[in-house]
Model the fold of this input.
Amino acid sequence: IPIISIMEETVKKIKQDNLSIVGLLGSDTTLKLQLYQCLLDKNDISCISPKEEENRIITQLILEVMSGKAENKTKNNVLSIIKRMEQQSATVIILGCTEIPLAISQKDVNIKVYDTLQILAESAVDFAVNDDPPMYKNQTQLLPSVDHAALSASP
Done:
């Protein structure tokens, strides 16, 4: 089974859309480990990250989503962070934590947002529909003792 990287697929999408400056919202771990930032740097894409105090607000939103009750006050604070990133020339905001799109969506902001989980899902479907890896070709040959015609004729 192929492994598709959510970060690599997001960077591919940014490159396809010819974007050079992005804002990044993510979990504390994602930001501290600079998981997206390293890939973005390697692809000559500038990344505007949250300030330390902003990261606490984003983490609060993530925890609220996980508990099932995101507060409007927290959401509005995160929207202010997005606005600051936009004012600093970000052309898209990466929602780099799978919980964030459950609270923040495209309808909440004027700037384009990339839901990384949506990008990953679209990439997986694209791979499944358009790619034909050699390991999956002629799978019936892997099971020569199975009579597929007989199986399909069974009631």
Observations:
- Confidence is low (pLDDT under 50) at residues 133-155.
- The longest helix spans residues 52-67.
